[in-house]
Amino acid sequence: MLSQPPHSLPTAVLSIDDLYLTHQAQSDFAKAHQSNPLIQHRGQPSTHDLPLALSLLSDLRKGLQTRLPRYDKSAFNGRGDRVPKEQWAIVNEPGQSKIAIVILEGWCVGFRCLPPAEVEAKWIEAVFHNDQGQYEGHLGLNKLLNISFVNNALREYDVITDQLDALIHIDAADILYVYQWRLQQEKALRESRGLGMTDNQVIDFVNGYYPAYELYTDGLRAGNLKGSDKQLRLVIDKERRVLEVIRV
Q1: Predicted confidence (pLDDT) at residue 129 exceeds the cutoff of 70
Q2: CA-to-CA distance for 216 and 136, rounded, in angstroms?
């Protein structure tokens, strides 16, 4: 809509998914941390190419000719890989209007790391509920050491979050909806590309990053951008219908 009249603002849409490590780099990273199940595949903070992200955002701010990376989630039977650079779209070419708006979307955009004591408190609570048989999450099924590794990695993402001028948070009324939504997405990918994860692989994949929702959703709902009136929260139901709009 921003690129159409009456605004007519040249717009680039990026996904944080397109900034994942290459398949080879992710495989090497997973092998280097074999004891941490949370980073055995793409998803969690630490599995993105932050130098690429910062270079990309810097070039866009300067109005330089820029290639926009793209990630193919169907590659390697759903494990994914970055597509060759020559296939990336180019913006800000000579004769083109300079990009005025950059939209960065993605599941963990806006998350902020937590103090270690808060991470431990949330983890202890999750373990307690799991021991009581009253638990549907995955935070409490992981070791605190592995959870802390992801939390520490998230601190490096502040250099991206701090550049956001505004944030629209599409917030599931029940976070467990992400399982159904990811299954739907992968089913559509298999139907369109003939490649992708099986349903069991999807569930295992979501299990790997679900603890981040348990840790960071409360903070995002409260507001993670510096300054007031920069964040909007859209609460949606299982069918993705908007239930409530909240200024944060």
Answers
A1: yes
A2: 17
